[in-house]
Structure formats: structure tokens, C-alpha cells
Description:
Layout: H1 3-9, H2 11-41, E1 45-49, E2 59-64, E3 70-81, E4 84-89, H3 102-109, E5 112-114, E6 119-124, H4 125-136, E7 140-141, E8 144-145, E9 152-163, E10 170-180, E11 186-190, E12 196-198, H5 201-214
Antiparallel strand pairs: 1-2, 2-6, 3-4, 3-5, 3-9, 7-8, 9-10, 10-11, 10-12
Amino acid sequence: MGVTEWFGANAQWISAATSIGTMMIWIFYAQLLYSSYARQTRARVLINRAVGDEGLDSPCLVCNMSSEAVYVYFVMVHVETTDGEFFVPATDCGQVSAERNQADLKARTHQGPLESGSCRELFSFKATLERAAQLAGAPIKDGRPTDPNVELKAMEYHVICIYGSDKRPFGAIRRFEIAKDAAGHDSLVATTTDTQKRSSLRYQKQISRWLQEHG
């Protein structure tokens, strides 16, 4: 049987195999396009400690690595001690500006839009810790509990943001453990190499509770 006769005899299954192959190629390219689109439209916010040996005096940095701007809604901090733990707002650390125009408002509360590729410097870890402890009724002075029997364990930031036209807020979360360095000073150690994004239905309910409790 020649090649022509063979193709003629098997034309039906060759056509089916060609159609399946073409469909698989289109599916492959569709997945590539979707993955590229998803990466471009996915919100990505990083929380980090400023480089340096300032310990708790280092400022906390929030960087927007998304392709569009995000709106920083508010900031919550979870403080863990050997005596317990508490969750309090830390967006406004009590600084008062003389003229409350838009620039001063951002400096005072660190809320507002954050453009793509830009960073915002929040208050230092010590200032945030002391403000949070004050609101929670847990006395802290110079970054340490006034009770010598209580030790700080960790701080976990929850930066609540809204991305682009998305109506649902999400949380950018990163945890820092507080440890002693060789000189006996408090130092911060991030427990993860990246910032976690949380947007589950359960977390959405948590955000709603925070808004109701803290406005």
C-alpha cells in the first residue's frame, strides 16, 4: 500500500488526531496568556524592615509591587508577649500635624494611594509597638514591657489594602519575631521570606469586624 492509499484509508483518525493536537496547542497558549494576565493583574504588596542595625527603631516599609496602584486602607498589628497577645490598630500612631492637608494626612496616618513600584515608610517598629501597647493597656517603654517578667515575642503586621477596581479589600501580612542580639539588644527577624496575601471569605469578615470595632 502506497503512502497516498494509506492516508486515504486512515484519513478519519488522522483528521481527529490533528484536531486534538491543534486544540492542545491552543489550550497551551491560552494558559500562557492567562498566566501572564493573572500576574499583571494580581495585587502584590511587600512588608519589610528598612536595612540597617537600628533594631526596633527601624521603620517598617510597605512596597507596592503590583502593576496598578493600591489604596492602603488601614494597618493592624498583632503583638505577642509571654503574658498574652493583642490585636490593635496602628495606622495613626498619635502624631498630630499642624495643617491637615493631604500631604500631612499621609504623613500622620500613612493611608491613601500607593503607586505601582513605590514604597511608603510607616512608623518605626518601636513607635508602632508602643502605640499598640498603649491602646491595649499593656505598658511598654523604650520598646520593652515595663513588667520585667513579661517579654516581647513577635509583631505581625496586617496592612489592609484595596487594589484597583476590586471592591474587596485584602490583607498583606508579615510576622517578625523579636530576639536578642549578641549585645543584648532587641532585633527583628522575619519568620517568612515573603509577605503573605490573605483575601479569603473568613478574612473578609475579620476586616469587617475591625472596621466596626475601630472605625
